[in-house]
């Protein structure tokens, strides 16, 4: 048995066509070996330091703290090279792919951050790179499409379904089914068939490890609450993992409530059911016959009807709590952070900020992972804010 | 076709075996056409499944439309999307199954999330009630969740295991040895869809499966012409044809045209299979 988990409680597994089983076995074995190999670790550590820009700062957001009445620290993944935590995983997997002798890389992307991160890692290692992206997301995240192409990646438009992240993942998996011999699929979140949820968590764990040390140094103690947004769940699981054994630390994952949990949303943990999507058993948004439904979120990175299996286990065990924030709340939080701290967060990360703004009773220390920067979202966010302001008749957020 | 076989034929697994035996007795591979239930609409697919049964299908693979069919190429994916948009539900596909299941063994092809949503037991019971002979679950690789296979076998239904060109030799032997009904040999590394030729490595793959298995080996994915079918029929016990038939329906101008198109393709394929040599005795 491999030490790389394939199930998290009942969740996870490998619900994929038989064609992929050999490749998943190969990947599991390669990761098992690489993750404890000093050569791989040293090479990855050097890249994370010199290329990605780690460790990222832990920043005490004083004006936000004043607003909430709690001490709020931001883990600044927005300051990594390419501007989101996705680069941690992309560089680690590209290095692994090279070690496995794979020459062709495929990826899916929603917000475009994972696509950009993968294109970046492929440029760095001279690997061929194809990124699947729904055409709706290509529209919402145009600057990221241009960045990928500039770095030599090919962006494959996906027209199926709602033309967003779910269909992009499906298209990438179909490509992998066909080209599995020379191709490695760099999945962008802690989802997919085993070993991906464990592999991506291991590579994102650096967020939580750094943050834990940094908060101990800055505050002299562990935080009361650790908060991260949850799309597929990679920045959240990477943040949570090193805190799971710290019983006094509350772990809070913030999903996308979209237009509201009784309407279209992206919150399978809060309002979904158990099912299989993209190869693993977890929480999904599906109808009573098991048909997967379209998700909705203003943030492309949270616009996904599934979530990583380890989160579903943490929800069931009660170790982590999952909440949801609407499009409107996220938009307003984006502007609050911009005005209070001079930081424009990604719309995804804005969900985590919004939750802290709305749940700030009592004293204590909050650690929020700011998963990415908002440059990619400017057009979408400004248009959304304008709609809200026109509706409100004023431009201020409480 | 002795009486022993008739007795066996009481359950789904036995009826699958009898269908392969009957074809073999005629010196040819069994023909197993695929159709997408509810595509383009329920009435047309009812006419189509009747035509399949009338035109010499030895077994029928009946697709349950699914929102995220990972093992399928664009033609079948689009058909599933259209069937769902037309309002097709799981129960409707079971009604289609029931139409012909007394005449021909029917195997629903259904993605695992639909199975798990019903629960393995209710799923197996529903199939049994509709007279299905087994189930083909393309995203449930052998060994991933034994409770589904167990629920089917308990009711005499065959859970169909897959083998692909990438399946490791030891795993291949284990899957083939444990096969109920038949082993589904995926002819190529890829998703469903027609291909220009039969892959040269296919004969060795099918041979390895037949060597390790008490059950027949049927080949699917990529077979697009009667000639391909005949070539595959020389190596395998059964030939599965999917995309080519779904495309015929998609391209047809109306219900009658669709029925005519699948009838003529199936008739040609039956002739080609009968004219070819059958797979060697083991
Ligand atoms: C900045 C940012 N945060 C969060 C996410 C959501 O992904 P995950 O839940 O895997 O961290 C994305 C995904 O694209 C993203 O770009």
Name a few traits of the molecule.
heterodimer, A: 398 residues, alpha/beta, 6-stranded mixed beta sheet, 4-stranded parallel beta sheet, 15 helices, globular, B: 282 residues, TIM Barrel, 8-stranded parallel beta sheet, 8 strands, 50% helix, disordered N terminus, binds pyridoxal-5'-phosphate
Count of individual beta strands of chain A: 14
> How many strands, which pairing sense, and closed or not: the largest β-sheet of chain A?
6 strands, mixed
How many structural domains can be distinguished in the coordinates of chain B? Answer: 1
Number of strands of chain B: 8
What is the arithmetic mean of pLDDT of chain A?
Answer: 96
| N-to-C CA distance of chain A | 55 Å
- Helix amount of chain A: 40-55%
Low-confidence stretches of chain A: none
From the alpha-carbon coordinates, what is the Rg of chain A to the nearest angstrom? 19 Å
Q: Over all CA atoms, what is the radius of gyration of chain B? A: 17 Å
CATH architecture of chain B: Alpha-Beta Barrel
Q: Compute the average pLDDT of chain B.
A: 94
Quick one: CATH class of chain B?
A: Alpha Beta
How are the strands of the largest sheet of chain A arranged? 3-4-14-9-10-13
Shape of chain A: globular
According to CATH, the homologous superfamily of chain B is Aldolase class I
Give the names of the bound compounds. pyridoxal-5'-phosphate
Write the layout of secondary structure elements.
The complex is a heterodimer of chains A (398) and B (282).
Chain A: E1 7-8, E2 11-12, H1 21-34, H2 38-52, E3 58-60, H3 62-68, E4 71-76, H4 86-99, E5 104-109, H5 113-125, E6 128-134, H6 135-140, H7 142-150, E7 154-158, H8 165-179, E8 183-186, H9 196-219, E9 225-229, H10 234-240, E10 250-258, H11 268-271, E11 273-277, E12 280-284, H12 309-317, E13 320-326, H13 327-341, H14 347-358, E14 365-370, H15 378-392
Chain B: H1 3-8, H2 12-25, E1 30-36, H3 42-54, E2 60-63, H4 74-85, H5 90-100, E3 106-109, H6 112-118, H7 120-129, E4 134-136, H8 146-154, E5 158-163, H9 169-177, E6 183-186, H10 202-212, E7 217-220, H11 226-233, E8 238-241, H12 243-251, H13 255-275
Parallel strand pairs in B: 1-2, 1-8, 2-3, 4-5, 5-6, 6-7, 7-8
The structure holds pyridoxal-5'-phosphate.
Residues 84, 86, 110-111, 113-114, 189, 229-236, 301-302, 346, 348-349, 371-372 of chain A line the site of pyridoxal-5'-phosphate (PLP).
